[in-house]
Write a structure and sequence with these properties.
Layout lengths: L5 H7 L5 E6 L5 H14 L7 E5 L2 H14 L11 E3 H11 L10 E3 L1 H12 L13 H14 L3 H10 L7 H27 L2 E3 H14 L1 H10 L2 E4 L7 H8 L6 E6 L19 H4 L3 E6 L1 E2 L4 H12 L10 E2 L8 E5 L2 H17 L7 E5 L6 H9 L4 E4 L8 H14 L4 H9 L6 H11 L5 H9 L9 H11 L4 H20 L3 H16 L4 H10 L5 E2 L11 E5 L8 E6 L10 H4 L3 H15 L2 E10 L10 H7 L11 E4 L2 E3 L22
The protein binds a DNA duplex (15 and 10 nucleotides) through helix 4, helix 9 and helix 18.
DNA sequence: AAAATGTTGCTGTAT
DNA sequence: GCAACATTTT
C-alpha cells in the first residue's frame, strides 16, 4: 500500500461519481492517481476496466510502471497500462473496428504529415501578401482548428496574427484573405489522407470523439468497457480531448488530476481554465485540493512562488514546503554553452566521486537541441545519461528507409512511403519515382502490383524492387522477420548511402526487431511504433546495463519528474521568454512563465540556474524588449545566490549590450 | 533532362 | 540531422 496523507486518501477512496483533484507541484499528483488505481484494483475492479490517461508517453509509462510495483497480487499485471490519449483512441478503434472505417489506416507522424501537406500545398504557395506560406504554418492552423474545435478563421487569427489586435479591420481582412487561400489547401490535404488511407495524430482523437458522441450503442459499449477513466495533467486537456471525455460522463467515473499553474500545452490548444469550470460543466462532480508540497525545500518553493507572482494572471497558489528549509538556489553566470556544459558535468563527476548517484541529477532545457552541448560533455566524460524528448529512431533516415518497404506492404496506397522507397535505388529520382507510383498505386491487388513492376512498360525497373517487396510481404504477420528481410534486401543501397556510418546505424535494427517482435502484423507494428517510438536515448558505460544515469530532458518531458539536483540551461533574457514567444503575444509569454515554473519545481534539494552571456541578445530582435520581459528581472536578492566564476557576487557583470555599429562579439585576439 | 552530390541554414515544446 | 536550394555528374 502507498503512504498517503488525509487529503490524498480522501481522493483515492472517493466514492462519488466524478472527481477533480487540484494539486500544486510536488503535492503528490501522480502518487494520487496511482493510489486511486491501486484502490480500485483492491476493490476488485479488473485492470482492463481502468483507463489511465496522460499527455506524454513518458508520464504514461511512468504511471504504469509505478502502479505495477504497488498493485495487489493475484491480478494480471500485464493488463495495467498507462496510455496517451492517442494510443487509447487507437485501442478503441481496434476494439470496435466496425464503427471505424479508419481502422487499419497508416498513421502519419509529424514529418509525414508535413510531407502530405507539402503535396497539398504545391510548390510556391503564396498568400495574398505574396509571401510564401510554409507547410508548417498551414499544418499548425489546421491542427489548432481541429484541437480547439474552432473555425478556420479563428485558427488563422490565433496562429498567424496572435500578437495583433483582434478587432482591427486590417487584421480581419488579412484573416479573411488567408482563409480563402488556405481553405482549399486543407480540403486537398483531407481528401489526400482519405485517398491514401492515412490518419494523422489529430484524426485519431477527432474520429473517436465524434463517433462516440454520435453513436449511442458504441458509447454504451465503450463506457461499459472503461468504467474508470483516470486523467493525469488535466490542465493540458484541449477542447477535442474534453469532447472525448464528455462521452464518459454518463456511463463511467472520471477521476482527473491537474494544476493550472503547470499548463504548458496551450500550443496544442489546451486551456487551463477548463479545470476551473469542471464542476459546473460535469454534473455530479466534486473538487478536492492538495496543498502540501513534499518534494522541495522552502527556498526552492520561494523562488517558484515568486516567478508565478510576477504574472498578471492569478493562480491562487502558494506552495509550502513540508520539508522545511534547505539550500539557496544559485544563479550562475557563464560565458557560453560549453562552459555551462562543462560546469554541470564536472559537478556530476564530483558528486559521484563523493558517493552520490548519477540519477540524482537532472538537466533541463527548453528545447531538445539546447541539451546537445551537455550531451556531448557527458559522452566525452563517460557520464551515463538518458535523454528524453527529441528525435526517435523512427525519425532517423535509415529507419525510415527500411520502414518504407514495410509500409508499402501494409498499405499500397502509401505514396509517401513509395516516394522514399523508390528513390533509394540507383538511377531513380523524383521523376522516375512519380512515373512508377502513378501506375502502380491504382492497382487493386498486391500480386498485380508486383507483376506490373516486374514488366514495367517504357522503363527499365530494377528487378530487386519487386523482389524486395515480395520478400517483405512473406512475413506480413511477423514484423520482426519482415524487417530483417527488408534490411537484407536493401543493404547494398543503405551501405552506399550511409558509408562508414552504416555499421553503427545497422545496430539500431536489432533494437527495433525486439520491439517488432511483440506486434502481430506489419500494420500493427507501424501503428504502435508511430504512437510510441521510444524516443529516449540511453548511454551505457561499456556494455554494462545501468539504471543509474543522469537525466537530460526537455522541460515538457520532465513534467511529473523530480530530482535531487536540477540544472536549468540558458535562463537568459532572449530565452525566457524567447524572441519567438514575444511575437506571439501575451498568452504565449504566460505559458512560457509556467514552463519555467514547472522546471523550477522539479528540484528537491538543489536548484541551479544558468545565465549565459553569449545568448543575451539575438540578431533578430529588440534587446530592450527582451530585457524588459525577462522573467528574472527585479529578482529579490534573498531568493538566489549569484555566482560568477565560482565567486559569490552581489550582482551580475554588466549585461553585454553592444552599442550600435560596434562589433557584437567580445574581444578576440585575431593575432 | 534527370540524378547525384554539395552546401547552407534552421529547427519550440508533444502525440 | 535534415530540408531546401545550388551545383556537378551521368
Amino acid at each position: 500500500m502507498i503512504q498517503l496523507n488525509e487529503q490524498q486518501r480522501m481522493a483515492a477512496e472517493f466514492e462519488g461519481k466524478h472527481l477533480l483533484v487540484l494539486a500544486g507541484a510536488g503535492t503528490g499528483k501522480t502518487g494520487t492517481i496511482i493510489a486511486r488505481a491501486d484502490y480500485l484494483l483492491r476493490k476488485g475492479v479488473q485492470p482492463n476496466r481502468i483507463a489511465i490517461l496522460s499527455f506524454t508517453r513518458k508520464s504514461a509509462r511512468e504511471i504504469a510502471e509505478r502502479l505495477k510495483l504497488s498493485a495487489p497480487g493475484g491480478i494480471n499485471k500485464k493488463e495495467i497500462t498507462g496510455r496517451t490519449f492517442h494510443s487509447w483512441c487507437n485501442e478503441i478503434m481496434h476494439l470496435y473496428p466496425d464503427h471505424f472505417p479508419h481502422h487499419g489506416y497508416t498513421p502519419l507522424d509529424e514529418d509525414d504529415r508535413l510531407s502530405a501537406m507539402a503535396l497539398a500545398l504545391g510548390k510556391n504557395f503564396r498568400d495574398s501578401k505574396k509571401e510564401k506560406v510554409k507547410k508548417e504554418v498551414v499544418t499548425a492552423i489546421y491542427s489548432y482548428a481541429v484541437n480547439t474545435l474552432c473555425s478556420l478563421s479563428e485558427a488563422i487569427l490565433h496562429v498567424r496574427y496572435g500578437n495583433l489586435e483582434k478587432e482591427d479591420e486590417q487584421v480581419r481582412q488579412y484573416v479573411e484573405e488567408d482563409r480563402k487561400l488556405i481553405a482549399p489547401v486543407i480540403k486537398k490535404y483531407i481528401d489526400y489522407k482519405k485517398e491514401r488511407r492515412y490518419i494523422d495524430y489529430d484524426d485519431m482523437l477527432s474520429v473517436v470523439a465524434t463517433q462516440l458522441e454520435r453513436d449511442e450503442a458504441l458509447r454504451d459499449a465503450v463506457t461499459k468497457r472503461y468504467r474508470h477513466v483516470l486523467v493525469d495533467e488535466m490542465q493540458d486537456t484541449n477542447p477535442l480531448q474534453y469532447k472525448l471525455l464528455k462521452s464518459f460522463v454518463e456511463g463511467s467515473h472520471l477521476f482527473c488530476v491537474g494544476d493550472d499553474a503547470q499548463s504548458i500545452y496551450a500550443f496544442r490548444g489546451a486551456d487551463f481554465r477548463t479545470i476551473h469550470s469542471f464542476t459546473e460543466i460535469i454534473p455530479r462532480s466534486e473538487k478536492l485540493k492538495l496543498l502540501r508540497n513534499y518534494r522541495s525545500t522552502q527556498e526552492i518553493l520561494d523562488l517558484s512562488n515568486w516567478v508565478l507572482e510576477q504574472s498578471p494572471l492569478r493562480y491562487d497558489k502558494k506552495l509550502e514546503a513540508h520539508r522545511g528549509k534547505g539550500e539557496m538556489p544559485s544563479l550562475i553566470h557563464v560565458e557560453d554553452d560549453w562552459e555551462e556544459a562543462d560546469l554541470i558535468t564536472d559537478g556530476i563527476l564530483d558528486r559521484v566521486a563523493e558517493g552520490g548517484r548519477y540519477a540524482d541529477t537532472m538537466v533541463l532545457g527548453r528545447s531538445v537541441w539546447s541539451l546537445s552541448k551537455v550531451e556531448g560533455a557527458c559522452l566525452s566524460k563517460k557520464i551515463p545519461y538518458v535523454k528524453y524528448g527529441g528525435t526517435s529512431l523512427m525519425q532517423s533516415a535509415h529507419v525510415r528507409d527500411v520502414a518504407s518497404a514495410m509500409r508499402i506492404v501494409a498499405n499500397s496506397y502509401d505514396e509517401i512511403a513509395w516516394i522514399r522507397f523508390l528513390q533509394l535505388w540507383d538511377g531513380i529520382g523524383e521523376i522516375k519515382a512519380s512515373r512508377i507510383i502513378s501506375r502502380v498505386i491504382t492497382l487493386a491487388t498486391f500480386a498485380e502490383m508486383i507483376s506490373c513492376l516486374q514488366q514495367f512498360e517504357g522503363m527499365e525497373v530494377n528487378a530487386a524492387i519487386p523482389a524486395t517487396l515480395a520478400a517483405v510481404r512473406e512475413y506480413n504477420d511477423r514484423p520482426a522477420q519482415a524487417m530483417e528481410a527488408a534490411v537484407k534486401a536493401m543493404q547494398p543501397m543503405l551501405e552506399k548511402k550511409y558509408r562508414e556510418e552504416w555499421t553503427s546505424r545497422a545496430s539500431d535494427f536489432e533494437v527495433l526487431r525486439e520491439v517488432a517482435r511483440s506486434s502481430g502484423s506489419i500494420t500493427e507494428f507501424i501503428t504502435e511504433y508511430v504512437l510510441d517510438p521510444k524516443a529516449e536515448t540511453t548511454f551505457k558505460i561499456g556494455t554494462k546495463e545501468t539504471d543509474d544515469a543522469v537525466v537530460l530532458s526537455t522541460i515538457h518531458s520532465a513534467k511529473g519528474l523530480e530530482a535531487e539536483i536540477v540544472h536549468i540551461l540558458n535562463l537568459n533574457p532572449a530565452s525566457f521568454p524567447s524572441s519567438r514567444t514575444i511575437l506571439q503575444g501575451e498568452g504565449a509569454i504566460e505559458e512560457e512563465r509556467r514552463c519555467l515554473y514547472v522546471a523550477l519545481t522539479r528540484a528537491k534539494n538543489s536548484l541551479n540556474l544558468y545565465r549565459n552571456v553569449r545568448s543575451l541578445h539575438t540578431q533578430y530582435s529588440d534587446a530592450n524588449r527582451h530585457e524588459q520581459l525577462y522573467f528574472l528581472n527585479n529578482l529579490p536578492p534573498h531568493l538566489v545566490k549569484i555566482l560568477v566564476n565560482g565567486q559569490e557576487k552581489k550582482d551580475f557583470p554588466a549585461p553585454f549590450n553592444p552599442k550600435q555599429g560596434e562589433a557584437d562579439f567580445p574581444d578576440f585576439d585575431f593575432g
